Amino acid sequence: MLQSRSMFQKIWDNHTVTKDEHSGEVLLFVDRLILTDTSSFHAFDHLRAEGYKVRHPKKIFGEPDHFAASRGPTLADIADDERRELVSALGENCAEFGLTHFGLSDPRMGISHVVAPEQGITLPGLFLLCGDSHTSTHGALGALAFGIGGQTGHIMATQCIWQRPLKNMRVSVEGVRAPGVAAKDVILAIINRLGPAGGFGHVVEYAGAAIRAMSVEERLTVCNMSIEAGARSGMIAPDDTTIAYVKGRPWAPKDAEWDKAVAYWKTLPSDADARFDHELTLDAATLSPMVSWGNTAADVVPVTGRVPDPANEPNADRRRSMERALDYMGLKAGAALQDMAVDQVFIGSCTNGRIEDLRAAAAVVTGQGKGRKAKIPALVVPGSGLVKAQAEREGLHRIFIDAGFTWGHPGCSMCVGTNGDTVAAGKRCVSTSNRNFVGRQGAGSRTHLASPATAAASALTGRVTDVRDFMQGGL
């Protein structure tokens, strides 16, 4: 009788080539490798120096995103010479080695973790890697996916990677979300419960009624931020929602291969009696819109809450960490979040740059037919060229522009600030991105993570705002 297995273990086993009995490491076959513009040039240099060829060119994709300019779609729009050269080099390297490349002029270009799912490059049951920590995003489609460091050249030459075994965690979110509570709020609440290192060494499977009720785009948001709890990856079992999303996409299986693939995908969900190293359960009905106050994604409270007091923290290390965060963020313990003035807003990133995110933000701007205007600078950057085109067909760009928001071109933009979109030192930004580390959006910047709806509402008031106030017609 076969031992019961989790979804993670099934995919891991299906990709195991061999195991080193001495070290315990496992050699895994890689189905997809995504290259970005930040560091992939090292891998190409390595291949040339050693005389290696790319083993499976059709399994590797180049997607410039970190350095893409939000002000325009061309190389000339990238102001920094070195970064412009790196974007150009990615295209040249992909052409030399026969790899698929979604360049700046390609209408499909965008953030790697947005492009791959919408192209069907990401599929259930695959093992996918990328030199970016938020590769965990792709687990929303039932893939095993995580970020890598310096192994890119090795993978390109062998299509395999050595990995140590990982632990398995299940986070179940049961019940029904209240109005105004977004997928971003759900994952921020989970990270708050786990802590910034609570998932270390684990792959997290998200389950429960509230997760199953989410769209694929919402699931992508949840899995995207798994790394912020220290997890290696996040996953959600493929179901009818997943299959409907994947069907017909360019890299998805076709005809008879589609039927075979679907049959396989239906075997992937964890067995009913599968065991997990750790379990956590949350009730979706108790969750509220969340906003971060500190320098990790675990430092969050409900938007109606107050900045916590380090004096109430019994752990000395945690207390000192909180004190440092409050000092950096310019906050006082006990301050109400909704009294906090905001200098600017960013809506976008691989966490919240998809069409549903833009619709949610636009709905706040146009709520009850009011001609609302942004009181502070607000930048909206679609996650891909296809998202941008869809948003413009729906007139969302016009809603934002008419309200005083800036409508940008696809890319990572202000999430990480490597394209020149930054927050000035000492300034406060409500951001739909995934990280609020010290200096993440620019030296001295102060980042408050939130959902697209919360970010849009905050742009309209100039302070941290509970989007439910707009839904009730009070603003």
Question: What does this protein structure show overall?
Answer:
There is one protein chain. The protein is α/β, with parallel strands linked by helices and 475 residues long. It has two domains: 1-288, Aconitase, domain 3 (2-Layer Sandwich), CATH 3.30.499.10; 292-471, Aconitase, domain 3 (2-Layer Sandwich), CATH 3.30.499. The protein has 17 helices and 19 strands. The protein has helices at residues 7-14, 40-50, 81-97, 112-119, 152-158, 183-194, 209-212, 216-224, 240-246, 255-265, 316-329, 349-352, 355-365, 385-393, 396-402, 452-461, 467-471; strands at 16-19, 26-29, 32-35, 60-62, 100-101, 127-130, 144-147, 160-163, 167-174, 202-207, 233-236, 278-283, 290-292, 300-302, 344-347, 378-380, 406-407, 428-431, 446-449. Helix 2 (40-50) packs across helix 5 (152-158), helix 6 (183-194) packs parallel to helix 8 (216-224) and helix 13 runs parallel beside helix 16. The model has no long low-confidence stretch (mean pLDDT 96).
